[in-house]
Amino acid sequence: MGAIEMKEEVAFVQTEKCIGCGLCVTACPADAIAFIRRSDTLEIPATNQEMLGKVLTEKGKLAKFTKLMKS
C-alpha cells in the first residue's frame, strides 16, 4: 500500500495510507512493528483542558483542583 516511508534509515507509517492489513508486521525482519487495534488504544483528549482533567482524574486530584479553582 506504500504506507511505510523511510526517512534517514528510520521507517515511519503514514497512517493516511495504512489500511490495517498487518502485512508490515509479518514482513518486518526485526519485529520492530506491532499491530495495535484502535479499540485497544487510549482516547487522546482533543484539548489541553480535557488532558488536564484526565490527568487530574487519574491522579485522584480533580476534586482538590476544582475546589482550589472555585476559591
Termini separation comes to: 56 Å
> What spatial order of strands do you see in the largest sheet?
1-2
What is the makeup of the main sheet?
2 strands, antiparallel
From the spread of the alpha carbons, the general shape counts as elongated
Q: In angstroms, what is the radius of gyration?
A: 19 Å
Question: Gist?
Answer:
The chain is α+β, with helices and mostly antiparallel strands. Helix content is 35%, strand content 11%.
Report what the structure shows.
This protein has 71 residues and is of the alpha+beta class. 35% of the residues lie in helices and 11% in strands. The chain is built from three helices and two strands. It has helices spanning 23-27, 48-58, 62-70, and strands spanning 4-7, 10-13. The protein has a two-stranded antiparallel sheet. A hairpin with a 2-residue loop joins strand 1 (4-7) and strand 2.
List keywords for this structure.
71 residues, alpha+beta, two-stranded antiparallel ribbon, 3 helices, 2 strands, elongated
List the helices and strands and how they pair.
Elements lengths: L3 E4 L2 E4 L9 H5 L20 H11 L3 H9 L1
